[in-house]
Amino acid sequence: MSPRAVRTLRTLALLAALFAFGVVMFGAFVRLSNAGLSCPDWPTCYGKVTWPGHAQDIAHANEAFPDRPYEDHKAWREQVHRFLAGSLGVMVLAIALIAAWRRKMAVIAVILAAIFAAVGVVLYMRGAYLVSSILSALAIALPLIAAVRLDRPGAWRVGIAALAVIIFQAMLGMWTVTLLVKPIVVTGHLLGGMATFALLAWAALRWWGVGSRDERFAALRVPVAIGIVVLVCQITLGGWTSSNYAALACGVDFPKCLGQWWPATDFHQAFILWRGIGVNYEGGVLDMAARSAIQLAHRIGAGVTFLYLAWLSHKLARAGLRKIGIAIGVVLVAQVLLGVGNVHLGLPLPMATAHNGVAALLLFTLLAALASTQRLPSETP
């Protein structure tokens, strides 16, 4: 691949990673402001490309969706989030095309994936759900196959695989609406956003030359990889807490919960992943014992994550990756303080949104640490 193409990928991947971080933050803002069902249809909003603005349009919207009265202060948030996600999709498509350039089959796979995804959306809007689902599945599979078969270094493969992830992420966004903010779907949507950001950030790090010229840090790869797994598990618990409206299940008490060290809990009900279709989960359906169990699990997970990442931060700094080790430690402490502040202050929207953003930053610092332990490919300038 020409140096010019690599430079283009560097710039585009950096911009896309920054944009993805913004989309993750705005998605958290939408979710935490209870605007996830503010547009009852998908991908339109009350049948509009944007959202109803005139009195006549609003009256028509309320008539068409009597169970979901129009709320202007929420609807724009949801639809703007969709526009941002769509813009990110275009950026990822461009990255995938450049990463696959001069590899005929890979380019064809990327182009077909984009066409299948677009046609699938149109068919979904027309009610052809089965054909739409088949095309969407093909749109996800083709970039993954192309990424596996590509004879280029990891960052190029990741750039193509990111297209599959963002297409699946769009489907999760659709299911979030059609399945009435089902917790497993909402949590999956959060993880999909984090995965998209992580893939783009990883590719950007590698294309910008983050890595080692030798194997001096090879022994750190496994501890860092474990740290990423631990953090992803904790992010999943955080998503499950949010999607089940359990963030304040312990009131404003910390470290106690409802004035007790261990209140009444129901872990069985708390972690039932699938509860059927047709239930509106907005506001949550679990009782206080189940929500308290989720909140306690999240706090225990936070403790485990803090201890491991604090140890990892120290280990990286001692091993020669001082700046990255310090960065992990600083972001980790900020995340813990935000979590405690969210409880004590009753989950203020700006702080709760920041809690999601700092989780993404913590994931980024770990990815930077992992990239620093791996050798750079010869194609990286």
Structure write-up:
Helix 1 packs antiparallel against helix 3 and helix 5 runs antiparallel to helix 6. The protein has 12 helices and no strands. The protein has helices spanning 3-32, 55-64, 72-99, 104-125, 129-149, 154-178, 183-207, 221-243, 267-270, 288-319, 322-344, 349-372. The termini are close together. The radius of gyration is 22 Å and the shape is flat. It is an all-alpha fold and 381 residues long. Helices cover 70% and strands 0% of the residues.
Features of the shown structure:
381 residues; single chain; mainly alpha; 0% strand
Order of helices and strands: HHHHHHHHHHHH
The low-confidence parts are: none
- Termini distance? 11 Å
* Number of beta strands: 0
Global mean pLDDT: 95
Could you say which overall geometry the principal axes of the C-alpha atoms support? flat
Question: In terms of structural class, how would the helical and strand content be classed?
Answer: mainly alpha
State the helix count: 12
Strand content: under 5%
**Computed CA radius of gyration, to the nearest angstrom:** 22 Å
Q: Main beta sheet: strand number and arrangement?
A: none
Binned, the helix content reads over 70%
